[in-house]
Hints:
The chain is of the alpha/beta class. The chain has helices spanning 2-11, 34-37, 53-65, 68-71, 104-113, 140-150, 164-180, 191-194, 204-210, 224-236, 238-241, 265-277, 293-299, 302-308, and strands spanning 29-32, 75-77, 117-123, 154-158, 186-189, 213-215, 250-252, 282-284, 317-321, 326-332, 338-344, 351-356, 367-372, 378-383, 387-392, 397-406. It has two domains: 29-309, Aldolase class I (TIM Barrel); 317-404, Immunoglobulin-like, CATH 2.60.40.1180.
Amino acid sequence: VVLSWLALALALPLPSVALENGLARTPPMGWMSWERFRCNVDCQTDPRNCISEQLFFEMADRLAEDGWRELGYEYINIDDCWSAKQRDAAGQLVPDPKRFPSGIKALADYVHARGLKLGIYGDLGIFTCGGYPGTMLEDVKQDAQTFAAWGVDMLKLDGCYSSAEEQAKGYPEMARALNATGRPIVYSCSWPAYQGGLPPQVNYTILAEICNLWRNYDDIQDSWDSVLSIVDWFFANQDVLQPAAGPGHWNDPDMLIIGNFGLSYEQSRSQMALWTVMAAPLLMSTDLRSISPSAKEILQNRLMIQINQDPLGIQGRRIVKEKSNIEVFLRPLSQAASALVFFSRRTDMPFRYTTSLAKLHFPEDAVYEVQDVFIGKIIGALKTADNFTVVINPSGVVMWYLRPMALPVQPRYVRQQAPGKGFRPALL
């Protein structure tokens, strides 16, 4: 009976089929220029921090030499403001000749030689958000071919200066054009962010067949308020967003700002934990040449990355929201493991939060080995019925990785994408 139940559970249709390019089976990881370096094109007075090939050469060196690449951070992504102000005589996009004198192909070759991949930015409109040449509908095929010829591995396609109609035509057209180049190019769409991020304007089933990842909501800024606004929106709308994610098609809450100026140590840990539970792409936007040891330690946490990159690719959910301003998030992982995040929105003092795995909908009569994700230490064995207390710092998190040591004899098999309050760890 249990086996037929399991077969039935696994046969239930998942909400969507991924874009058929076989890419981004786990959330993409890497580095992106925008949040930290924006549209700084003043290479005369600020050569170290302007958008130029030098910046990307140096960041590629850091990813390759400082332990990032081995952990999975493989993309070096150019954002806006890289191109010349006009297309060339043949109508092609060209990089700014002063800031990218070697050209994008040479930059891609440099990045590839270091075992990394190159991402680039385009915009489906008259202009990019920064006022550079956009990709109009008639340019889609040519631009896709240009990016492929340069050796680009990821395209982020923004949506400034375009209409809803143009977006509805252009985003699917670019997916087809990229696939037609024959080069594997991960496709990041900003389409839903321009349509409010929610149905009926956004059809996530269709989106998952077109894009590998997509921006749903506002740009992140270098502040805790910005991080909280993104967390609030994503989890308030988790019933819509959570089933849309999976291998090959991810919700993107935007870049990691850990290592910049706006987050405290506790808040940096919180962003990392919450993005991991969301199965979010881990795209850092910070200066890797001068990053602090504490920020680097957070971003290079091996267990955190293992959880983020879990092959099942199930996005986690908020399962508890207490009046005490404590929230609990759960992400089911492969081999019946789970990640739990206990998050404090409090601003006063460390809070002692007591609960049990039973209250968090874990199977009865199970026993789990609990590991603290940040410290790496195994805390011990925990039965579902046992009460436990975690101490959570203000605007901080406690994050646990739970591996089953003993499961009930007849586990209750649940759908991987279980919606609503019944969301519980998948027993597979």
